[in-house]
Design goal:
By secondary structure, the chain is mostly beta strands. It has one domain (43-173): Immunoglobulin-like (Sandwich). It is built from one helix and twelve strands, in the order αββββββββββββ. The protein has a five-stranded antiparallel β-sheet with strand order 1-3-10-7-8, with no helix packed on it. Strands 2-11-6-5 form a four-stranded antiparallel β-sheet, with no helix packed on it. It starts with a helix and ends with a strand.
Length: 176
Amino acid sequence: MSRAILVKALSFASLAAVLFSMPVSGQERGVIHATATVLPAIRITGLNDLRFETVVPGVDKSVDKASIGFAGAYEVIGHNSAEVSFDFDLPPALLLDSTSFMNIDFSSTDASYEDGSGGGQGSPSGVLDPNGPFTLRLSPTGRLDIWIGGTVHPTITQTGGDYSSEVTLTAIYTGN
């Protein structure tokens, strides 16, 4: 290949590279940001144990959800007005040791809640069935109080002693 042709070819290649690497006038670009707000973690605090006090063998004993100081009580704190799904992990019995137990049950009306629209534990916002999951909305300030009662069923030959089991409340934001 002659030197003149090589120079022309390189000149053309250089010119093409310059022309195609120059920004095209009329071309614009837009930028957005991907953002997200993470809700604060839900905090559940057990405020009061479900207390049956003294139980007589062979005599069922109930504690009502409205019994201040005896009903189980939880305080839930989270994002203002957020929808939350709740679920109780309810024990089938209270335990003394690995061989002694006392049955406990929870009726469909053994729990209640206060979201700021009711009158507290004695006149709550609503009644709940603690036996299944339920969905509630936190108050505009992000608070909810939940109370639970139940009934123990001691046998006539129930072994004496202090029985207990955990009643656990879990919560998760629904995203609604």
